[in-house]
Amino acid sequence: METVLSTKIKNFFPGLALLMAGFLAGLLIPNFIYCFSWKQQAFSAIYLLAAYGKTGAEGTDYLLKIIWMRGSFFFLSLLCGFTVFGVPIAVGAMLFTGLELGMVFSMSILQFGLTGGVVAAALLFPQYLIYLPLWNVVYQMIYRESMGIWRNHGIFPRKVSDYFLKVFLYTMLYGVGIFLEWRVNPWILNKILDFSKFF
């Protein structure tokens, strides 16, 4: 019983805790920096202008940019599940995702007020409703597989087929998130921007 409990503890991946820690750091860091050095021409404005520029992107060029931006690291991470690099990549990816989200919200509000916060939320909707839970599940899987290699257990043929089946299913779901970011998110963002101009 103690052996099973010990194995579960060692295989536990604190994905949500890492995400929230990164998010909190992302919220706090820009506030400290902003007090000392950030003004109207700060990095936050540049980032948001680039993000707002997404609304002008259309067609396959925009789709290819999303696939490259989202898919490249996602597939690299899945391959790293078969190596010892899967553990640090899983931990780093969740921490960095939280940090990125926190900084987007914090910089948006600092630079543009409450309107910036609404636009930041619009930038993430609805694709992040798929991305966030999926990243948590996928990086947990990568963490566990890689941890098994760290302990020299190796990967058995049955586990490889299970892993690839999960990879296929998660990739299909990830494709839905990419489609939402390509087609639905620009429409929502345009509506929010038009609504904010009204005020």
Structure explained in plain terms:
There is one protein chain. With 199 residues, the chain is mainly alpha-helical. Helix content is 84%, strand content 0%. The protein is built from 7 helices and no strands. It has helices at 2-11, 15-36, 43-52, 59-80, 86-124, 128-150, 157-198. Helix 6 packs antiparallel against helix 7 (157-198). The longest helix is centred in the last third of the chain and has 42 residues, at 157-198.
Structural class, by secondary structure, is mainly alpha
Radius of gyration: 19 Å
Number of strands: 0
Average pLDDT taken over every residue: 77
**Helical stretch tally:** 7
Report, as a whole number of angstroms, the end-to-end distance. Answer: 62 Å
Largest sheet report? none
Contiguous runs where pLDDT drops below 50 for at least 5 residues: 36-50
The 3D shape can be described as flat
Strand content: under 5%
Helix content: over 70%
The gist of it:
The protein is an all-alpha fold and 199 residues long.
